[in-house]
Every structure is written in C-alpha cells, then in structure tokens.
Amino acid sequence: MSGDLFEGLDPRPARQPIADGAVLLRGFARSEESELLAALRAILLAAPFRHMITPGGHTMSVAMSNCGAVGWATDRKGYRYDAIDPNSGRPWPAMPASFVGLARRAAAEAGFADFRPDACLINRYVPGAKMSLHQDKDEADFAAPIVSVSFGLPAVFMFGGMQRSEKPQRFALEHGDVVAWGGPSRLAYHGVAPLKDGEHPVLGRQRINLTFRRAR
Ligand code: MD3
Ligand code: FE
Fold first, then answer.
1. How far does the centroid of ligand 2 lie from the alpha carbon of residue 3, in Å?
2. CB of 213 closer than 6 A to ligand 1?
3. Has residue 9 been placed in a domain?
C-alpha cells in the first residue's frame, strides 16, 4: 500500500517554507553526516572552539570556530571577518569540499542558485548556552543566503521580524536539519533559546551548528 493517504499528515515534511525566503530542509544532512563530522573534527584540531568576547565585554556562552577563506570573530574591538584565526595567527582551516557541496545543494533546493560560501562559522552549544536575538549583517552582500546545518541536541530556534520588538516564532532544529535563509529573511532577527540538557546518540551533550556565508 502506498503512503499517499497519510502524506499530508507527516509531522516532519522534508521541505518546509518557514518564512518569506526561508526554507527548512528536515534531515537534509543526515545521509552524509559521518563524512561531515569527520571533516569537522579535523578542522577543530587546527582551530579549536573558543569563547569569544563581545564588544560590550561579555563572554559568549556559545563556543566558536570557523573554516573557509575568512572567519567571523568578535573581541573588544568589534565584529569582523578575517582570514587569520586570532588565536593561532594562522589562516582558518580551508572549507572542505563536502561542506561546500552540502551548502550549495541546500541553497539550490531553497531557490538560491550558485551559492558560493567563503566562510563557515561553527557554533557549539552546551546545555544552557544560548544566542540572543540578533541580525547577521557583517557580510558584504545580502543577496547571498545563509545556510545553517544543525547537529546534536535539538534547539529551539527563534525567528523574529525586521524589528527586534517583533515577537519571534519558535521552532525546533534537530540533528541533520538544514535551513536556507535568503531574500526577505536574510536580515530578520533570530536567536537560539538556552539549550536544554540531554544526551545525543552521536554528539553527546552538545549541539553544533554550521552557518555558511558569503562574507566578501
Ligand atoms: C536567519 N546561529 O551564527 S542558525 C549565527 O543555531 C546564528 O547557531 C544560530 O544565528 C545557531 O549567526 C542560528 C540559523 C540562522 C543563521 C543565520 C541567519 C538563521 C538566520 C541569518 C538570517 C536569518
Ligand atoms: Fe545569526
């Protein structure tokens, strides 16, 4: 018997438009997760996670690293993209072909042709870590989308409007979920609620998020 009768009732559709220009691709990274996570481990040996300081002097609860031609960093002097990892003084690790391929396929699936990411910010959340509502506006060209890939513990993602005061929609991002954010969603306020404790079968007590960007 075919599953057609029940298809409309699937609580987790594969391709879910969540806002104007934003498409959630549930489980899109699952089939290649072992290759992606192996590449991620190699990146983190060269550029380990670190807690960066905001210009206001606060230590971020999310630990970060990067790969790609440039990486995002913050310190007391401000936010910026730079080719050099400030902790090592060396260039950020190159973006693996497996990362570029996934980001390009996800962007294309969401309607953004020829995405060429030059930066991948890697965020690690442990239980309690969060990211307050913000806009991503340190990139040169807002015509390019941002593609995000989630691994490990599920997070409650908050998606607001063009003003911080707009009440955000909340939804879960789970292991292997990919979202492409472009068009009118590109400059929307967004954040992540404090990570709930748990144990993920692959990643343990953490969530790792990759965001692919065209920074320059
Ligand atoms: C919507 N990261 O690194 S990913 C960030 O889960 C960031 O670590 C979150 O926000 C995380 O800047 C959210 C989803 C995401 C990323 C970028 C966006 C959503 C976005 C840019 C514009 C609109
Ligand atoms: Fe962001």
1. 37
2. no
3. no
* Domain total in the chain: 1
How would residue 190 be classed by pLDDT, with cut points 50, 70 and 90? very high
Cα separation, 101 vs 84, whole angstroms: 24
Residue 141 labelled as part of a binding site: no
* Residues 110 and 181 sit within 8 Å (Cβ to Cβ): no
| Ligand 1 atom 5: residue of nearest CA | 211
Written as one string, the DSSP assignment of 13-43 is: -SEEEEETTEEEETTTTGGGHHHHHHHHHHH
CA of 121 from ligand 1 middle (Å) equals 10
Establish if 171 belongs to a structural domain.
yes
Q: For ligand 1, what atom is nearest to the CA of residue 123?
A: 8
Helices (H), 112-191: none
Ligand 1 centroid to 87 CA: how many Å?
23
Instruction: List, for residues 114-149, the tens digit of each pLDDT value.
Output: 999 999 999 999 999 999 999 999 999 999 999 999
The predicted structure's pLDDT at residue 14: 85
Q: What is the reported pTM? A: 0.94
